[in-house]
Specification:
The complex is a heterodimer. By secondary structure, chain A is an alpha+beta fold. Helix content of chain A is 24%, strand content 35%. Chain A has helices at 3-11, 19-30, 50-59, 112-125, 144-151, 182-188, 295-307, and strands at residues 61-67, 76-85, 88-97, 136-141, 164-173, 201-211, 214-223, 234-239, 241-250, 253-262, 271-279, 282-290. In chain B, α1 packs across α2 (16-37) and α2 packs across α3. Chain B starts with a helix and ends in a 5-residue tail after the last helix. Chain B is globular, with a radius of gyration of 18 Å. Chain B folds into 2 domains: 3-89, RNA polymerase sigma factor, region 2, helix turn helix motif (Rna Polymerase Sigma Factor, Chain: A); 99-181, Orthogonal Bundle (Arc Repressor Mutant, subunit A), CATH 1.10.10. Classes of the chains: A alpha+beta, B mainly alpha. At the A-B interface, α1 and α2 of A face α2, α4, α6, α7 and α8 of B.
């Protein structure tokens, strides 16, 4: 057999085999969490220290100002900005909680501590072409309870929704990228915006499937940090996006809502709704991507998430 | 504009079909071409070739999923181009890296008596992939259809790079065994 025949055969595979990967690629285009590298559409929200926020803001020209709502019932501030990425104009959205959401590390009691303890050794021994980022912990779980147990922080609660659960995972980051050997850092594609061991960010993500074509994600983050003035935030980068901000009060909580229309993405992935909330030191985010026909359904699911808050 | 409306334009031979296709899928198709070619001007040329091919074939075809239909055309055009380029100079793209991985699967037997029917190979490959879990299938296609880097492919499938690497290694080994069993290689 010639290798070209195999390559060509892969190129002619039946469309039905692509259903999962196509759904994943749709999700990737606007995913809130997942890829560490920025992909088309929305990048993963990440914890940023204030010093990084300040650096970023210096380069950001705010458009339309910040969507600063009144403080009553709201948990944070949503800032919409614009930035230039090598000639490509990008819209940024940052959700910055009002409160100090840092968690005392001693309150994190799960097995994630074992992995964190191993991190310095992993960093010391990291080689440029290792397949695992030495400063990251990524674990997948069968259930959300398993994931929350792994973290072991009592205030990290999760709204439960009655949809097919696609995946549950935790992500943890420690050790500043700057502490890694330069060759390792470059090979791993890590930027300098990373974390020291005492500044661990932990995210738990649950992906659901609300219908065969569209997934949505619910995410909870926390951050341990000994450094003062280090609030966390969710940072999203969107290309050619029209944005609209909103708020909705449910059971005394006033959620911040960001609706985006990213016009240069393929149909079916253009519209997205993100909802933000911070409570008990944990930052919560809901994210759904949809097209015009599914607008009502997406809004209904987002509403359901807000009502399902424990 | 919906896929169906764009397909109507193709079938009416309305050149707006090309404009609407570019508007909607340019970035998606460029990503595929760039993953294979690694050169922007080559990728743009490849995209133009693909759009022309779509224009020429669309009256006969009315694909269910326009994005995948176009993606497959771009993939073919880009691979043709990289084969041409590789004859002159080896390219360091995800395509060549992915192809090197796939080399574990086959023995390059060029004897005429071992020439195989492409359609049968495709059928066998489909049967093989259908027997794999959704996770394995996704990873295989991310790496060997879309030529995503190992890191991107792992991320698309929600797993670590090391896990993705292990799964791909095992899958290539299983595929090799399967193809031998099916008589596609000695």
């Amino acid at each position: 057999m010639k290798k070209d025949q195999l390559i060509d055969a892969i190129g002619k595979l039946d469309d039905t085999l692509f259903s999962e990967i196509e759904a994943s690629m749709q999700s990737e285009r606007t995913a809130v969490a997942g890829a560490d590298t920025e992909s088309r559409g929305v990048s993963k929200p990440r914890f940023k220290k204030r010093r990084f926020v300040l650096v970023a803001l210096a380069a950001v020209m705010l458009i339309g100002g910040a969507a600063a709502f009144g403080a009553g019932g709201l948990s944070g501030l949503l800032k919409i900005g614009k930035t230039d990425d090598g000639g490509r104009e990008q819209t940024t959205a940052e959700y910055i909680p009002f409160g100090d959401v840092r968690v005392d590390p001693s309150l994190i009691t799960g097995r994630i501590n074992d992995a964190l303890a191993e991190m310095p050794e992993r960093v010391r021994n990291a080689q440029p072409f290792d397949n695992v980022m030495p400063n990251a912990i990524l674990r997948r779980f069968a259930t959300i309870d398993d994931a929350l147990g792994y973290v072991g922080y009592k205030n990290m609660v999760f709204p439960r929704l009655d949809y097919e659960c696609v995946s549950v995972q935790t992500e943890g980051y420690g050790i500043a990228a700057a502490e890694l050997d330069a060759a390792v850092r470059e090979a791993a594609g890590l930027d300098s915006e990373a974390y020291v061991l005492s500044d661990v960010s932990i995210g738990v993500t649950q992906k659901y499937r609300s219908n065969p074509d569209y997934c949505f994600q619910t995410i909870a983050y926390l951050c341990t940090d000994y450094v003062k003035e280090a609030p966390v935030r969710i940072h999203m980068v969107l290309e050619n996006a029209k944005t609209a901000t909103d708020q909705k009060t449910v059971n005394g909580r006033t959620f911040t809502i960001l609706r985006t229309n990213t016009t240069d993405l393929a149909e079916g992935h253009q519209l997205a709704t993100s909802v933000f909330w911070q409570e008990n030191d944990v930052l919560f985010c809901f994210h759904i991507v949809y097209n015009e026909e599914c607008r009502d359904e997406a809004e209904r699911v987002a509403d359901e998430w807000m009502h399902s808050f424990p | 504009m919906t896929d169906s409306e764009i397909m109507d334009l193709y079938q009416k031979r309305d050149e707006a079909a090309i404009r609407e296709t570019q508007k909607k899928y340019q970035r998606y198709l460029m990503k595929i071409a760039m993953s294979i070619l690694g050169d922007e001007s080559d990728a743009e040329e490849c995209l133009n070739d693909a759009l022309l091919a779509a224009w020429n074939s669309a009256p006969a075809d009315r694909p269910e999923h326009l994005s995948l239909y176009l993606g497959k055309i771009v993939r073919v055009k880009a691979i043709d181009r990289v084969r041409y380029n590789t004859r002159q100079k080896r390219q360091g793209t995800e395509y060549t890296v992915s192809v090197e991985e796939l080399e574990e699967v086959f023995v390059d037997d060029r004897s005429p008596e071992n020439a195989l029917d492409d359609a049968l190979l495709r059928e066998a490959l489909q049967n093989f992939l259908r027997k794999q879990s959704a996770e394995v299938r996704m990873l295989f296609l991310a790496r060997y259809f879309y030529y995503r880097s190992l890191r991107e492919a792992a991320s698309l499938c929600g797993m670590s790079e090391s896990k993705a690497k292990t799964i791909l290694f095992r899958t290539r080994k299983k595929l090799r065994t399967f193809l031998k069993k099916e008589g596609f290689m000695p």
